[in-house]
Amino acid sequence: MTRQGDKPDDATTRSPRRSVETVPAFVVTDGGGQSRTDEVVVEQPLEIRLASDPLTTTMRTPGEDHYLAVGFLFAEGVIQTLADVGTVSHCGRTDEPGYGHTLDVVPAGGAKLDWDRVEGARRAGLVSSACGVCGRASIDELLARVPPVPLDIRIPATLVARSPELLAAAQETFARTGGVHAAAALDRAGRIQAVAEDIGRHNAVDKVIGKLLYQSRLPRLNDPEAPILLVVSGRASFEMVQKAATAGFPLLASVSAASSLAIETAQTMGITLAAFVRPGRFTLYTHPDRVLPPAP
């Protein structure tokens, strides 16, 4: 169990389930085939409850579930600070077969939750990128609850270009399985302030936000030492920009493409959106003046 204000330790953030499993495999080549064992990433459901009321279910890689749940609630606007969180704990007994797949977040006494956002978060659990989102309405709703990121923050181009390399160096599970996404928060010096891996792109970002929330290091909190860049291993979708905006990141870097709604949202929210980021090259779609060119 994790109480309000506490930083979850390894015992509370780990799920009882492993994040990697070993499975039999048969490799086919031109010369024949060979049996072997492979390590694969685990995919299991996690039901997030709010005060025992089912809120959403996400397919995730077990581990750091507390960060995932709290980060999700913050990104969706249900909670405003960590002080809104009372306890976070897995439901049931440890000897039950399904233990570790249901997490209950109990609000702190006196916490004033946005119940409209609770219903919005409940709907968000049922919507995927394939289902579509009402674009302009979603941006307007985000703008109504989150102010745009100030445009006076400058970020070195060299940091943007290096961000996927720094992320890759921290992807331990990906190195073993090749089957997970990742997200990391970087400070101006290129130091990783928080990193997470998960089979879900959004889950990895929620875990990073949850970690920064427990550290009181979210950019939105105006900490001068807070990270300035969020780098993600997948494409930049509306949901990714929404989460970056809620956390207050001035720049979102993606190793893949950006969607049209992601670009529109980033422009409105004051976020510099960099896509197709590679060493020495990337594409800026919004607020390019924030990125400082490399010195000649």
Protein model, in words:
The chain folds into 2 domains: 2-18 and 43-133, Roll (Ubiquitin-like (UB roll)); 155-292, 3-Layer(aba) Sandwich (Cytidine Deaminase, domain 2), CATH 3.40.140. 42% of the residues are buried. It is of the alpha/beta class. The protein is globular, with a radius of gyration of 19 Å. The chain is built from 9 helices and 15 strands. A hairpin with a 2-residue loop joins strand 4 (44-50) and strand 5 (53-60). The N and C termini lie far apart (53 Å). The strands form 4 sheets. It has a 6-stranded mixed beta sheet, sandwiched between helices. The protein has a 5-stranded mixed beta sheet with strand order 1-6-7-4-5. A two-stranded antiparallel ribbon has the order 2-3.
Give the structure's gist in a few sentences.
With 296 residues, this protein is an alpha/beta fold. Helices cover 30% and strands 29% of the residues.
